[in-house]
Design brief:
75% helix; Methane Monooxygenase Hydroxylase, Chain G, domain 1; COG4_M; mainly alpha; COG4_N
Length: 770
């Protein structure tokens, strides 16, 4: 209840104090009860547990007294056994030393005897036996006192070293004799195996390395002699480069299994660590000599400097003057009158202007040879590196660490430097030079069907060669940069230039002084030829691009230069293979396809607007003039005789679309035809939807649609029926006898894919006059 006054508060406080006192009294009683329980438990423990503990303690002390003597006896026995064990170990070690020293003495004596008898097999076995003795025993005073004899008085360390050196020297001499002078493969293999039997793995590998380096050096003499002669303008140095690494690969393939079988052990190096470093130094020196000679004879630095200083003017001139009157017909006259005159226009005493100095440009043929050789250098080197990885079972980093290169520059670094500083700049220049050359010799072939020019054939033959060469370097980065340059250049200096030519020639018809007459007809004829030619150029270029992409993207082609395995097969994360990366690079060619398509679509529209639209408008106006489908029987019979729509279309169509089918490519003609078809059918449909139809008129309309479809199908075989779908459905609706709301469902049940909406169907049904 609420406390309303001070008395209520005092009463509540008194009540709380009383409760607190009662609670305190109960707690004190509980504590007293607990204390009594603890005392009772303590008394019980003293009376029951303590006597038992005392009894157990007395028994333990008695047992300890009984076992004390036994423990002392066991301790004395353990000390004596430990002394016996130590003495036994010393005796065992002494026996081991004695046996080892006896074996060492016997092995040294037998080794010396074998050397005198030229018994190399026994000598190798005795050498291995003596060498297996521990160095601590050989160097001990005991061995120094026990091993020397009258015949071998020197300390065992010196004796073994001298005998082993004599044996290995004889083995090396015999190995070199049977490999270089006698060419006895069986004996050479025998003496090489004796190095392993004697435990001299490193010395055997060193002997074989010397032989291998001498053989490679001898093979390189022929290459060095060829480097002195004057090379022809052909891939001469790349052939020498390929010969060098082919010979080394064959040598490694034949000899590496033999060396590892005879001289590879668990604790000793094999072919990779023992022989490969020497071979690497030799092939690096020979490779650098080839590259040095190539650099000097091909004048690489001069070519790069000249290419960087070159100016490209053809494309700039085309941008400045994209359309020249008469060029498409091959009758362009020079704008410089002085060139056409047999004498100068200046007076004899007037000094003529000094002609500008002729620009120094590299020859495209020379640059192509240099680029081809560089690509072959890189391709052969990549192939050789892959061979080393596959045959020796090691990664490139492990091969590099094993092969201590003695030459100033590693071949891998030098090849990469040449690709970066020579191949890419020269390739960029060759690409632009070839493109400008293709533009400069661009000639229209107006007699061809379809009409075209030399531009796409020249350009895409060049493009295919350049991209193939870039991919043949086996370098993803090089291929990526070259393809990026090619795609960018095709966009700016080919597609844009062709579109610029089309736009410029089209604008030539808008000159105010070009009034109707022969001059305008001639200009229109030239614009028509120019637009047809360059529309076909764009379409053919799209086809060529797709073909090049399909050929270069195929694994059958790319697998020649790129591996289909990840570079790091042990990586925890997924890493794409070189082949997949190369395919991704080539896929960038596809970015050109939409650009061709958009340019063609736009220019087809401009061709229609410029040359066809006015004629098409006149034809459509003539077709739809006085057209009616409110026919009685007499009018229906008259239209059957006149066949008005079909006959007018047949008469006027060739005037609207003269010879476009033969002159345009198939896809370009299809685009233009569809544009004309839209210009015909859309106004026709709009007019039809504003008419009324008698029953006979609906039949006549259905016949007209069928005749139009039949006639136009003769001029283009694909895509026509889709354009006529709405008109055919209108004819279907007009000729139905069902009620309005049932026509749409009837058509759906018959499998018609309606292009008309239900509201349009209802509107068409409302046009019928029943």
């Amino acid at each position: 209840m609420p406390l309303a006054s001070a008395n209520d508060v005092r009463w509540a406080l008194q009540l709380a104090q009383d409760e607190e006192k009662a609670r305190k009294t109960r707690v004190e009683a509980l504590f007293e009860s607990a204390a009594r329980s603890v005392d009772v438990a303590d008394q019980a423990a003293k009376q029951e547990v303590r006597p038992k503990v005392q009894i157990i303690d007395e028994k333990a002390k008695h047992l300890q007294a009984q076992l004390q003597n036994t423990s002392t006896t066991a301790s004395h026995l353990y000390s004596k056994m430990q002394l016996i064990h130590e003495e036994r170990q010393r005796v065992k070690l002494a026996i081991h030393w004695c046996r080892s020293v006896v074996d060492l003495k016997s092995a040294c004596a037998s080794l010396a005897e074998s050397l005198e008898r030229h018994d190399w097999d026994a000598g190798a076995a005795h050498c291995a036996s003596a060498s297996s003795c521990e160095s601590s025993i050989i160097e001990s005073r005991f061995a120094q006192n026990a091993v020397p004899t009258t015949y071998l008085p020197d300390p065992p360390t010196q004796t073994l070293h001298e005998l082993r050196a004599k044996l290995l020297e004889q083995l090396r001499k015999n190995f070199e004799f049977y490999t270089i002078q006698e060419s006895n493969e069986a004996q050479a293999t025998r003496f090489l195996s004796l190095f392993g039997k004697a435990g001299a793995y490193d010395e055997g590998l060193d002997a074989y390395k010397t032989l291998a380096v001498s053989l490679v050096h001898a093979q390189g003499d022929g290459i060095r002699n060829k480097l002195i002669s004057t090379p022809p303008l052909s891939p001469y140095y790349s052939a020498l480069w390929g010969t060098l690494f082919d010979q080394i690969a064959i040598f490694i393939h034949e000899h590496q299994p033999v060396v590892d079988r005879l001289l590879l052990s668990d604790s000793k190096a094999g072919f990779v660590q023992g022989v490969l470093p020497g071979l690497d130094g030799e092939w690096t020196r020979l490779g650098n000599q080839i590259l040095d000679a190539w650099d000097e004879k091909r004048q690489r630095t001069r070519l790069v400097q000249e290419s960087e200083a070159c100016l490209f003017s053809v494309v700039q001139k085309i941008r400045a003057t994209p359309h020249t009157v008469g060029r498409i017909f091959g009758n362009v006259q020079s704008s410089n009158r002085e060139r056409s005159l047999p004498f100068p226009l200046t007076r004899p005493s007037t000094p003529r202007a000094t002609p500008p100095p002729k620009e120094i440009r590299p020859e495209l043929g020379v640059v192509d040879v240099v680029l081809n050789e560089l690509a072959l250098f890189s391709s052969h080197w990549a192939l050789f590196t892959e061979f080393l990885i596959n045959s020796l079972g090691t990664t490139p980093s492990e091969v590099d660490s094993a092969a201590k290169i003695d030459a100033p520059h590693a071949l891998d670094a030098r090849i990469n430097e040449l690709l970066t500083r020579t191949f890419l700049p020269l390739q960029a220049w060759a690409l632009r030079e070839s493109l400008e050359k293709a533009h400069s010799i661009d000639t229209a072939d107006l007699d061809a069907r379809p009409m075209s020019s030399s531009l796409p054939d020249d350009l895409f033959f060049m493009l295919r060669s350049i991209l193939t060469r870039a991919l043949s370097t086996s370098s993803i980065s090089v291929a990526e940069r070259v393809l990026h340059q090619a795609v960018s250049l095709l966009e700016t200096d080919f597609i844009d230039i062709v579109v610029l030519r089309l736009d410029s020639c089209r604008r030539s018809l808008n000159v105010p002084r070009l009034v109707e007459g022969p001059r305008r007809l001639a200009a229109a004829r030239e614009v028509k030829a120019t637009m047809i030619v360059y529309l076909n150029v764009l379409d053919q270029s799209s086809t060529y691009t797709e073909r090049i992409y399909a050929d270069l993207h195929s694994p059958a082609f790319l697998s020649q230069y790129f591996k289909d395995i990840p570079k790091d097969q042990h990586a925890s994360t997924f890493e794409a293979s070189d082949l997949a990366l190369a395919q991704d690079v080539v896929s960038r060619l596809n970015s050109l396809i939409p650009k061709y398509g958009s340019a063609i679509q736009f220019e087809i529209g401009e061709l229609y607007t410029t040359l066809i639209q006015s004629h098409m408008h006149a034809m459509v106006t003539d077709l739809l003039q006085d057209l009616t489908y409110e026919l009685n029987e007499a009018a229906f019979e008259q239209t059957e005789q006149d066949n008005r729509i079909a006959s007018r279309l047949q008469k006027r169509w060739e005037l609207v679309m003269p010879s476009y089918r033969e002159r345009l490519t198939e896809s370009n003609y299809a685009l233009l035809f569809m544009r004309c078809l839209d210009a015909l059918l859309i106004p026709y449909e709009e007019s039809v939807l504003e008419m009324h139809f008698s029953e006979l008129g609906a039949l006549r309309f259905d016949k007209d649609v069928r005749q139009l479809l039949g006639f136009l199908s003769l001029h283009c075989s694909f895509g026509i029926r889709d354009k006529f779908m709405r008109l055919q459905q209108i004819a279907f609706v007009l000729n139905q006898e069902e009620e309005d709301e049932e026509v749409y469902e009837t058509g759906t049940s018959l499998g018609i894919s309606w292009q008309l909406t239900p509201s349009e169907v209802k509107h068409v049904r409302g046009l019928c006059i029943r």
